[in-house]
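In keeping with the milestone schedule agreed at the kick-off meeting, the structural modelling team has produced records for the first pair of proteins. Each record is given below as a sequence line and a structure-token line. The laboratory manager (R.T.) confirmed that both were archived under the project's standard naming scheme.
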Amino acid sequence: LFVPSETQASQFQKLIVERYHVNVSIDDNRLATTEVDLVFSNPNNVSVGGLFLFPLPAGAKQKNTEIRISGNLTEPQLLRQQKLTEFYKRILQAQDLQMLQTIGTSALQVEIPPIPDNTECRVQIRYAELVEKTDESLVYTHHLRTNQPVESFLMSIDIEGEDAIGDIESPSHDVTIQRRDEASASVAYYASDVELDLDFVCRYAFVDNVFNEERLVFRDVSMDNAPPLTLHSPTFERKRPARVMESFAYSAIVPTSVQFNPPNGDAYRDVFFKGHGTNPFIDPEDDNQSTFGMDADSASYSVVRRYLRDGYLPPIEAVRVEEFVNAFDYDYTPPTDDTFALHLEGAPSKFGEGKRLQLLRIGIQGRVVPDVDRKDAILTFVIDVSGSMGMENRLGLVKKALRLLVKQLRPTDKIGIVVYGTNARVVLPHTSVVNREHILESIDALCPEGVTNVEDGIHKGYELARRNSDSDCINRVILCSDGVANEGVTSAEALLKQIRNYVDEDGIFLTTVGFGMENYNDVLMENLAKKGNGNYAYVDTLSEARRIFVENLTGTLQVIAKDAKVQVKFNPDTVRSFRLIGYENRQMKHEDFRNDAADAGEIGSGHNVTALYEVKLNKGVDRGRLAKVSIRYEDPDTQKVTEVSEKFRVEDLKDEFEHTSPGLQFAVTVAQFAEILRESFWVKNGCLKTVHQTLKGILQQHPEVISKDEEHAEKRGEELLVLVRNAERIKKQEQAS
């Protein structure tokens, strides 16, 4: 509960809760240590200060309680029941009744200094309590009934005991349960853009002997009024609903011999990825060139983030190393007059095996078009509203994402909307963003319907875009879908050919944005973007949508270079062998580097592209040309083709990896993370613990390597470290089992 100062109360808008993360550790003496990490932002146009109130459970131990405001340890005031009641009465004189929350019999109170407008504040709370003991089990409860919207909510509980842990469940939330061994387990729940309207409850019990068991969760999202599902068995204990939202869910304990998992042990059903192998080392005497199309996409990183947050390792085919590396901004110096600036750097490889192995980083920074100079945009939303988009509230996330985009557009921009289920139809002809509310109403009115006719949706979307295109504007189709096609033409090849015709004839760019996981086709979404001269993103949270459509809007919409490609020529006199890390599905024929009709990559305003090579030097080499790096691209406005080259010499290599820029160190370590996840032959001895330690060291010393914005850098850095730690934990569990 945040209460603004009395002078601000009448005009106060509620603070936005960006993050509410809870980590709990419960030992074998029932002592639960709870750490709450809360980040909220001030949406008001003035600074806002006031009092912050945090409820404590009845059994919380005051001596083990601490609170930090923006990292600074603060002495809180403890309000007991009488003072808390007086505080409520004082609030009611100046605040709306909705601010009154039933939060327990005691609370911590601290004063929050003024938070500048559009700025975040971080509050960290730590307290300890004894877990409640009932006749049959132990129960941990975290009070959440605030009805407060939260953008990122995480609940993580680690349980350790001397005896074996028997039943574990959450009767309140649909959790992921991981058993590390018979006496320890973890419980996790993650959600984005939720209202905290239900207390989190975890119930568990210790037993002398425990048999193997699994938790079975049934869902039926296709039937709105389905009757409750009941399991009948004298040995099965029926549980009450784990969570009730658009769907119903029941759980029961079943023997491990009964399998209801997705086929082949997959984490999700009907998910399609395509592997492209791993680049080998090449002898430059056989072929001294490496040619590939530029790629600034980062969808693979977001997809893998979804897997790891849900407690699964991703399929190796889902990991595209270059999209991990390019998911981060390395703060390369932008060009002054040209379209691109080249940044070359090298040093001994930290992770690679073998003597004389060097690491060459090619950093390419695109020209930044200021937002005020962006061209007017004519956007055509093509939105999948088929039945599969009702799963996981996918369409709900699509609508929130598009609302963010619409609110960032200018009055001179235009939006048209096509939806498709069994058939496609235009729900909004191109409309000026002057009529923003009308556009938002059209988006809000969408609901799931029918099967998935992607062909009809693409056809009608491009036809609408073609009729309203303007050569002086940005003309772009934005496809929002899970990539499933089961009606009309479903062949990927036929759909790709159809899109290519529109691109070649009309110059309309495409952005594909993926949503959901079960029934998800990554292959189709990526290939549609390639053929559509566009980019591919995957949205797993509203924060990712904000990054694409708010923080990087001009980069998403306005192209600064078409058919951009890279060619590197290695010198056989100095180089024994080389390997491009990633870009397996972006490889091009060497002769197509100067073939301007060959399709390559499209790069948006301010985008940067990073490529990494492992290079083994010849014996005794300490000087001479190592490689020549060339980039070639077409200006989308003038159609002028430009080629730029730069040479890199052996003498330019740093003597130690640690002497390189933080950006190179970070990019190489992120690539190592991806290489391990995709089980690359070249990192068979790779260690995720080493990756975590290296990343942590870099981020502690150079947080700006991710972003100059301190809060943003901390948030993304923390996210990455958690993902590496999750991957390490899951790998250990799989190896143990």
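The second protein of the pair:
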Amino acid sequence: MAAIPSPNSAASDDRAYRGRIFAWTLYDWANSAFATTILAAILPVYYSTVAGASLSSEAQATAYWSIGLSISLLIGAILSPLLGTVSDISRTKKRFLGLFTLLGALATGLLVFVTFGDWLLASVLFVIARIGFLGAMSFYDSLLPHVARPEDQDSVSARGYAMGYLGGGILLAINIVMLQTLPGTLGARLSFLSVAVWWAVFSIPLFRRVPEPPAATSLAPGQTVFSATIRQLKGTFSDIRHYRELFKFLIAFLIYNDAIGTIIGLAVIYGAELGFGSVELVLALLLVQFVGIPFSLMFGRLPSPKSTRRGFYLGFVLFNLVILPLVGIAGSRLLPSDISGVPAADFETQDGFVGQGIYTAHENPFALSGDWETQAASAEVSGEGADAELLISRAADDELTLQFNGKAIEITYMAGPQSGSFAVALNGSPLMDGTDAGQMTIDTFNETLRYGETAVITAPSAGQHTVTLTNIGGEGAGNLIAIQAIEVLQPDRESSLMVIVAVLLLTQLIGLIFAWLTQKLFNKPAGTLTTKRSIMLALVIYSVIAMWGFLLDSTIEFWFLAWLVAIVQGGSQALSRSMYASLSPARKSGEFFGLYGVMEKFSSIIGPLIFALAVALFGSSRPAIVSLIAFFIIGGYLLSKVNVSEGQRVAQEEDARLASEIAAQT
């Protein structure tokens, strides 16, 4: 087999070096489509509403989805360090990367066959696909120290994240168009197929242009790969003191990345809780994807002595750290509420018309006409996490009336094979559905029993209204209507996205001018930035994000905050990856990046638990957001105690020792 050119070799062809880097970063472009479309945006909703349509409720579907996440996480955490060590010994990093990529892409592509009620098939394919995704990422990361020279690892790692943002964002945008234009479930199913093709095709350059790294050691006579793997893992864990600085970094990373992962994973849920619409949340997700591209590159170059624009980059980042919160908060106070998106006053109960809130048979604000009865459904039966009390009608022309003060209500009902339909009237007149079909009707028939189904009824304007639901039977086997609850929704946020984006872009233009004019002023502090200090700068910005997230309550602040998240999200993760690479022996990169993968996978456990506890105690997750500051402070403090130069020295000595052992055996 031909000798592998070292990235440190002076004879290494510069064009080939750049080609290897591009091929490596293109894999981030390839697999980030899985992270955006499959993990974040489309498959979770599709699983709940389509694949899980035969389950008793969306809550049960969510529970099964969470179980799938946990299973894939556990399997990935077990396999990563074990197979990583095998790849070091047997020189098979690319082979394992190809195997997990094929596994993930194939399972993702097969999701195209998942239709209504196929929750078990969807669960199995998702678990397999995510194992492929997690396993491939571990081997992909382990190639970084073999692809990039040490002085380039920060910028190359950041370039990978930038490519991932771009690739994942582009395909997600395409997939959203597919959802809007293709009929039924075809758009979603073809989106899954497109992710598989995208992932597989754009992975090819890596396998063609990135060489297989050298082995960590050669096998002794009579020794198997498995026995050598166990021996090496035992040796690493028994000699933790030898890699003291690396493990100090891993502990710091576990803590601060828990908060970062919590912000990434729960941002959409938190935004929905604050009343931001689904369109705004999806657009904000796309904004973070695309805005993260240039800022990931900036953060990757902040620690680089070769960069001549470090002062400009630092000035621009610090400008945004200070000005984005100031302008966002000022905009929420000074701009008209129909532009800034400041919420209107809550709808309150007036003259017997109930205000915003959730109403069930227990509160009984309803006027019932006909033969209605109350029936309990346990949490085990309903899958809703709590006992449900249903209002049941079994006869045509039974009516339920609610007087409310507001604009929109959400009706939660049970669907099933014995269920019929109900018609909706507003203020004594049939509510028209906007089509030629006439009066709005809600068909509650479903082939299987399912709780927690919802329908939203919107009045032309806010005020006091009377809504009447009339049992009109149905074409199915029965006339049963079962109402779980009716919620009077909070006022809509009215905002002008065009004005908000214009103010945001104007702020960035001023920031660019400021950074250009003051770059000489920032050259000296920028010159002191190392990889570690750049990560700590990102943690300071994340602390501001957590505090602001606790306080924000307007659409303009939401968008400005999303921009601030985009500034640090990719850069903090990219620099963490490259710093870890510099502290790890390159010849053991498979093993050590397997451990890094374990920490990365389990670094979002405590944060979500705090969110759940905050909701249970306070009825809101706002307190959990501000508590994340503690994670950034503790993680940053522990990071400050890492002696990077000592850790790098230990890693280089280990590489030299392994190389000499191989040379002696040959």
